[in-house]
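Here is one chain, start to finish.
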Amino acid sequence: MGCYLVANIVIDDRKEYKKYERRIFRHLRKYGGELLCVDDNPETIDGKDIDGRLLIMKFSTKQVAKNWFFDKDYQEMAKKYRYHCSEVKFVSLLENE
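Its structure:
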């Protein structure tokens, strides 16, 4: 069992976004989250192309993933270091039962 967070992010300023990347792992560890895959050029084999970065994270449950995402400290960090230099296209949760 587990939950996978899949996100598509368009990074407008990579230098600024690096500040976010240096901080996210501390927040992931707090909730036992793991970054499984990051691809800045994902290959679409059916449907519309995805712009930007595609990433996959793993958490123990959907609720833990939500707790991480809505954590006050994480949200404050994301607002300070991610919101101004990137655009989130989607964040989806997939639970493996």
